[in-house]
């Protein structure tokens, strides 16, 4: 049994194509762990839970609504039902947990880059953008090459998706609790 076994989704749920092996997919989970992720799992896109109600939670109750280039309120942003259609073109990716949002963004971007140079040109990472102290929206984005939308901005129900993988995620009840942050990199 490899050390990574506990980080891998049940293999029969992950369908790799183009002659890819699970070993290849594990490589990206390993990179995320080496960079400091608390958990990193190969995940099938079939196991992502999509729900357009994520838009309601973004529009009503999120204090960042209308203030960021990666928010669904940004001009020409994809609507959840459009995003779902696009994301379902992928087969598999890596789900990453950290307890530091900046680290989650950095790891997911680096995994995307490594996959890109390995021959997965459409690899795409998702996490809220923490690159600037305050987003400069509506002025032009300062780092458009690195800024990516979050999973929830693209219609993924993060709670349901993460719970399905048996990973920790709970609403925070007190200020002292340490949140878990989840990023996703769709690779192929
Ligand atoms: S890089 Fe900066 S300006 Fe661009 S979306 Fe992220 S926080 Fe906003």
Give a short summary of the structure:
Helices cover 27% and strands 12% of the residues.
What does this structure look like?
Strands 1-2-4-3 form a four-stranded antiparallel sheet, covered by helices on one side. It is of the alpha+beta class and 188 residues long. The two termini are 25 Å apart. Helices cover 27% and strands 12% of the residues. The radius of gyration is 16 Å and the shape is globular. The chain has five helices and four strands. The site of iron/sulfur cluster (SF4) has 13 residues, from loops.
Sheet with most strands: 4 strands, antiparallel
Q: What is the CA-atom radius of gyration, in angstroms?
A: 16 Å
Mean pLDDT level: 90
Number of strands: 4
Report the total helices. Answer: 5
Order of helices and strands: HEHHEHEHE
Strand line-up in the sheet with most strands: 1-2-4-3
What is the SS-derived class? alpha+beta
Measured between the Cα atoms of the first and last residue, the distance is: 25 Å
The low-confidence parts are 1-6, 8-12
DSSP strand (E) fraction? 5-15%
Domain count: 1
The global form is globular
Helix content bin:
25-40%
Small-molecule components bound:
iron/sulfur cluster
Descriptive keywords:
188 residues; alpha+beta; 4-stranded antiparallel sheet; 4 strands; 27% helix; 12% strand; binds iron/sulfur cluster
């Amino acid at each position: 049994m490899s050390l990574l076994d506990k980080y891998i989704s049940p293999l029969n749920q992950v369908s790799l194509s183009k002659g890819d092996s699970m070993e290849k997919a594990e490589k990206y989970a390993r990179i995320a762990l080496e960079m400091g992720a608390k958990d990193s799992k190969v995940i099938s896109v079939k196991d992502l839970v999509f729900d357009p109600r994520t838009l309601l939670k973004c529009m009503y109750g999120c204090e960042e609504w209308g203030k960021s280039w990666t928010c669904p309120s940004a001009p020409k942003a994809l609507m959840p039902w459009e995003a779902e259609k696009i994301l379902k073109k992928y087969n598999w990716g890596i789900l990453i947990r950290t307890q530091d949002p900046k680290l989650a963004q950095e790891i997911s971007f680096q995994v995307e880059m490594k996959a890109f140079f390995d021959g997965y040109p459409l690899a795409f990472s998702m996490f809220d953008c923490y690159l600037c102290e305050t987003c400069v929206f509506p002025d032009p984005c300062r780092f458009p090459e690195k800024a990516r939308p979050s999973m929830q901005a693209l219609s993924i129900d993060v709670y349901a998706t993460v719970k399905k993988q048996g990973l920790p995620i709970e609403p925070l009840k007190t200020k002292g609790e340490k949140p878990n942050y989840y990023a996703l990199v769709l690779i192929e």
